[in-house]
Every structure is written in C-alpha cells, then in structure tokens.
C-alpha cells in the first residue's frame, strides 16, 4: 500500500488529527440545550417563589451581620459562592491530592502529580477546576446585574439558581460519580447565566 493511499484513508486522516472516535463529534449537538434551558430557568426563578425564599434563607444563615439589604443581595451571594468555589472546594481538592500519595501533599510542587490522580482524588480536583472555569461567567453576570439592575428579583433569583445548582447538585454529583445529574445541573446553571445576560440586554431594570 502506497503512502498516498494511506494518507487518503479517512480513518488515518482522523487519527493524524488526534481523533480516535469520530462519533464523539455528535456530542456537539448538545449545545442547543443551553438555550432551551433558558425558558426552564425563567419558570423556576419567578419572583416570590420557593427558589427565591431558598436563596434568601441561605444567605441569611450563611452571611453574619443581620438582614442583608435588597440591593446588596448580589454581593452577599457572591461572597458565599467565592468561598465555596475558591476556598472550600480548593481545600477539598488539596485533600484529594494528599490522599492520593503515600507521602501526602507535596506542598512545594502541588501540581506536579496531578496527572497521576485517579478515582475520588481526581474527581475532587476536576470538580474544583470546573467551578473555577465557570466562575467567570457568574462574575460577569453578577457584576452587570449589580450595576444595571441590583434589585431585580428575577435576575437575583437566576444568579441564585446558578449558585445553588452548582454547589448542591453539580458538585456532589461529581464527587459521587453520578454523571446524569451532574450534566443536567451544569446545563441548568449555564442557562441561568445566559438568561441573566439576555434579560439585561433587553433592558431589565
């Protein structure tokens, strides 16, 4: 078989591009679900609903110092979410690395052994990193809402939905290695942020 024949074989061409399973490309069709989820997040975050009461209760319990003014709910929510994303799950990720090595955490070179992580230690790290990767979207949506519509109940509820789903559904499902709720939680949380930005673009106050 000539070299030209080999290079013209679609399977060989795919392999040269690092593709081992061409059917994996079908997962890209999942993208429209993020837009389809916008309507669902609107329904779930209607003002004066159970989610709004859940968000308010969680903030009152978590943030010391008395009742939070309505126009300061977003900074309060952000404080809780920053703690969870950078502090709590960061500590759990480091604990996972320590559990994965007989000599414990290598604090001098903590990232040197990441490629060796397996099982729960790897999920602890991966879940933490996913929260970090997605935090910029929350930060953008929260910052714009605080600037343009700081007392809009539905926007606050949507931001709360994102944080609640990420903290109490996505993260536990990741650690327990239960993919379906983890994936659905990620889609719902991302749709909530898309919804916030779209509503702001349409003039929400």
What tags apply to this protein structure?
205 residues; mainly alpha; 0% strand; disordered N terminus; Membr-assoc_MAPEG; MAPEG family protein; transmembrane helix; membrane
Radius of gyration: 21 Å
Straight-line distance between termini: 68 Å
Query: What is the percentage of strand-forming residues?
Result: under 5%
Would you tell me the structural class of the helices and strands? mainly alpha
Structure notes:
- Its main location: membrane.
- This is MAPEG family protein.
- InterPro entries: MAPEG-like_dom_sf, Membr-assoc_MAPEG.
- Pfam families: MAPEG (PF01124).
- The protein is mainly α.
- The chain has helices at about 5-10, 10-15, 30-45, 50-60, 75-100, 120-150, 155-175, 180-200.
- The model is unreliable at about 1-5 (pLDDT under 50).
Entry summary:
This protein is an all-alpha fold.
Which secondary structure elements does this structure contain, and how are they paired or packed?
Blueprint (H helix, E strand, L loop, with lengths): L2 H6 L1 H7 L15 H13 L5 H13 L10 H28 L18 H30 L4 H23 L3 H23 L4
